[in-house]
Amino acid sequence: MKKITILSLCLLTLGSAAAQKQLVKEVEREMKGNAASYPESVKKLAPAFTNQESASDAYTYFVAGKGAFDYYDQQSVFAQMGKEVKKDLIGKSILEGYDFYQKALPLDTVVDAKGKVKTKYSKDIIKGIKEHYNDFNNAALFLWEVEDYPNAVKAWELYTTLPQNPALVKAGLKAPADTLLAEIMYNMGIGNSLAQNNEAALKDFRNAIAHGYTKKNAYDYAISAASQLQNPQAMAEIAEEAYALYGKEDSRYIGYMINNLIDKKEYAKADALIDKYIAEDPNNAQLYFVKGVLCDSEGNPEASMEAYKKAISLDEKNANALMQYGYKLYQRACDIDQNEGGNLSNAQYNEFRANKVDPLLKEAAGYLEKAYEIDDTMSDARQVLRSIYYNLNDEENLKRVESM
């Protein structure tokens, strides 16, 4: 009885394997007869993908991959003709086809009667991938249009890396120009940013820059991705590259460099760096603003006020410098009031306030009002103004600020 049971199991196993191979053949015929059937037909191969024997047979995955590529060919032509198509399925099909082919390749070995190892499908697989190389870029565009950014990036990643595959190079695949690759890498960065994969986005933008995509937005998006990752070192490195090209146009880059040095408390390096850039561009207001921030970090309020005042003299609409200078005046008024206003009679204190404190508060208010007028997102400026007008007993302006 035990032998019969074992034999029965063997027959069932053989039957199952044969059934899966037959299933693959039937699906192959189905997709050859109608390429559009691929999305549904490939689902029928699920048992063949799990059966031990058919899942280790290159033929199973070759059939699936060929069906996916044929579907892409047919549907992409329909799209060009203006017919109604499912762009998400078109884009995904070539990715699925590539994945199936990648599973088939390592399984594709045939040993002949002489013991020589040969391949049965590899040549056709390599040829198919090579002939569809440009379609990975086209598939990415289909996927981008339906906002499937992760798969669009996957298609572009294959487009940028396949020319490094030795088998495809041997088959004659040539890489596109670096300018096109750089643009594709930039698009990958945008896609990964939209998918909130900032680590991948940062890598993509840096690769794009390294390949020659040196437009300003590449640096800006790279810095943004690094900021999301809370990586000030990367922000500073990218900013340094960007400053060499766009520093006169956008001085914020120097800020990222200085902030990184401030975070590391490398004040001497920061001082040397900002002074170097000021010497090269002495009329750049933003550089003096950054110097003011640095002086603040070093605990030198007098030097910071001098730097902010210089920035305002060069650019009276520098909202950040106006805000910081006004705030420094407010702080000075508060310090004087606290340090010198004690132990005075009411009459003496009122005179002291009128002569030493209130003028500074009013001067501070003027700078803060200008800052807020230029940039009404500066909630800190509004908050300090509220405190100033409260201390000045200026009810009219206090109500106005509170209603902003």
Question: How are the elements arranged and paired?
Answer:
Layout: H1 2-33, H2 38-41, H3 46-50, H4 58-80, H5 87-104, E1 110-111, E2 117-118, H6 122-131, H7 133-145, H8 149-161, H9 166-170, H10 178-194, H11 198-210, H12 216-228, H13 232-246, H14 252-263, H15 267-280, H16 285-297, H17 301-314, H18 319-340, H19 346-374, H20 379-391, H21 395-402
Antiparallel strand pairs: 1-2
Helix pairs in contact: 1-4, 4-5, 5-7, 5-8, 7-8, 8-10, 10-11, 10-12, 11-12, 12-13, 13-14, 14-15, 14-16, 15-16, 16-17, 17-18, 18-19, 19-20, 20-21
What is the structure about, briefly put?
By secondary structure, the chain is an all-alpha fold.
Polypeptide structure, described:
- The protein has three domains: 148 residues, no CATH class; 77 residues, Alpha Horseshoe (Serine Threonine Protein Phosphatase 5, Tetratricopeptide repeat); 89 residues.
- It contains 21 helices and two strands.
- Helix 20 runs antiparallel to helix 21.
- The N terminus is likely disordered.
